[in-house]
Amino acid sequence: MQNHFERLVESLSADYGAAVSRSEDGLDITVEAGAFLLMFSYLAEAEQMLVSTCVAELPAEGRERLYFRLLNGQYFFRETAGATLAVDPEERFVTLQLVRHLAGLTPENFPLLVEHFLQAALLWRNRIEADSETPSTCEDRPADAAFDPLAMLSV
Fold first, then answer.
1. Dihedral (C-alpha) 77, 147, 19, 91: value to the nearest 10 degrees?
2. Which H or E run includes 8?
3. DSSP characters for 62-103?
4. Shortest CA distance to 35 belongs to which of 50, 11, 53?
5. Among 21, 38, 48, 61, which is least packed by CB within 10 angstroms?
6. CB-CB contact of 34 with 49 (8 Å)
7. Helix, coil or strand: residue 30
8. H/E stretch holding 42
9. By three-state DSSP, how is residue 135 classified?
10. Over the stretch 37-70, which tens digit does the pLDDT of each residue have?
11. Would you say residue 127 has pLDDT above 70?
């Protein structure tokens, strides 16, 4: 299924007009998607794909409130497009991560899944920045877009 993984990510990079960067073993591919750097990892043993991105830096203050909001937003994955929010304590940033079985991903549904993932990442970047009043240094972010978290659950 690794070829299927590579074809899905390469077609997506063409949609964004972005260059693809690969690890030496071909198991990790990165694609620049607007304001986010998407990292795709092929999980060979499970025939799954992991999609992850940096959402925002952790603010210096108000972390307890942020952690509560992150957990609350993950309740039944309502505001995460089925993904998981996590904190990287060493790098000090919030990530969004999603795992899907490759057999369920097609050239038709994969771009929609990634778009919903990016909408969730943007939602959380905007929330974190609004709370901290400090722009994220993960990437430059685009202007706010219309966002419907319930629409994300359809993929």
1. -50
2. helix 2-16
3. -HHHHHHHHHHHTGGGTTTTT-EEEEETTTTEEEEEEEEEGG
4. 53
5. 61
6. no
7. strand
8. strand 36-43
9. coil
10. 999 999 999 999 999 999 999 988 888 899 999 9
11. yes
